[in-house]
Amino acid sequence: MSLLHADADCFFASVELQRRPELADRPVAVATHIVMSATYPARARGVRGAMPLRQALKLCPELVVLPPQADYQSAGEALMGLFWRFAVQVEPGSMEEAFIDPGDADPVATAAAIRAAARDELGLPVTVGVARTKLLAKLASRRAKPDGLLVITGTEEARLRATLTIDDLWGVGPTTANRLADAGVTRLTELEGYDEARLRSVVGTAMARRLLSIRDGTDDATVRQLGPRRTVSASRTAMRPSSRWADIQAHADGVIDLALQRLAESHDGQAVTHRIDVQVTYADRGQWSTERRLPTATRDRNVLRRHCREMITSSGVQAADRPVLLIMVAFRLTGVSGSRQQNALPLF
């Protein structure tokens, strides 16, 4: 039985290009002063996500820079809804990618159908990997990018596992990789001879069990239902960071209204919140954050808007005289039960 890993290519840029299709073949980045997403023509010139925009423009002077203006949250929710049409279970990894269990349907045909529907209905290029386990499906989708489909068959699986390096393994971070390298392990095959007791002295129990399961081909092959969403949030990045209080207030009001809208739409309109979190990120990457617990859980828009504005006003941001880059507002939900549509991960 095979499962799928589906991942929208250059998600933020792809969403923005829906409004600017004439830029499809140009090097494009969605950015403020930091690159959020770069198209493959831009990546071919060395432009990468999280890169300072100044550096990106040096590498690619003809780079088309688009400000982040689209509703990425709604685009991600639409994508997850599309995945569910072809699945008996969907496990989101982020707002633009998910593992998909196609049930009894042919997995390759399902992958092709998902790609076609995403392109035709949402205008999004989606790459899909098909394999027996989550790790291999994710490896397949990585190797199929951009805008491709790759199937790893049972025959190919054993051959592929024998070639994997530790750096190829999804979920193995640099700290773990460095510890393994110090122990002389840089390839999956070099774990031969290790048992759990020996390996956990290097990487800990949980990671030791995971690595040994990958080595033995018994790694995770189940697409799982995530728990219900416990937080509804919204954030926006300023096109031009400003320290003017009027600009900050307008920025905050836009984020507050978007968060309230998402709260109203969550859990069939029945969600209430008992806690508000607000975070402000300055243009110099410094941050300020606070929380407020409410005496009574509520969904009343006027009450919540008033609390949010009070939190921003009393934050010290006005007196700080520092340009504000991003504002995030989050509502912690009270007494909710999940549904499949509510499992799509929020943007922030």
UniProtKB/TrEMBL annotation:
Q: Which GO terms describe its biological process?
A: DNA repair; error-prone translesion synthesis; SOS response
Identify the GO cellular component terms for this protein.
Answer: cytosol
- One annotated GO molecular function: DNA-directed DNA polymerase activity
Q: Which reaction equation describes what this protein catalyses?
A: DNA(n) + a 2'-deoxyribonucleoside 5'-triphosphate = DNA(n+1) + diphosphate
Q: Which InterPro entries match?
A: DNA/RNA_pol_sf, DNA_pol_Y-fam_little_finger, DNA_polymerase-Y, DNApol_IV, Rev_trsase/Diguanyl_cyclase, UmuC
Every copy of the UmuC domain together lies at 3-173
Alphabetized CDD domains for the sequence: PolY_Pol_IV_kappa
Instruction: List the PROSITE patterns.
Output: UMUC
Q: Which residues form a coiled coil?
A: none
User: What is stated as this protein's family in its record?
Assistant: Belongs to the DNA polymerase type-Y family.
Function according to Swiss-Prot or TrEMBL? Poorly processive, error-prone DNA polymerase involved in untargeted mutagenesis. Copies undamaged DNA at stalled replication forks, which arise in vivo from mismatched or misaligned primer ends. These misaligned primers can be extended by PolIV. Exhibits no 3'-5' exonuclease (proofreading) activity. May be involved in translesional synthesis, in conjunction with the beta clamp from PolIII.
The record's section on PANTHER family has: DNA POLYMERASE KAPPA, DNA REPAIR POLYMERASE UMUC / TRANSFERASE FAMILY MEMBER
This chain's protein is named DNA polymerase-4
Q: Which organism is it from?
A: Microlunatus soli
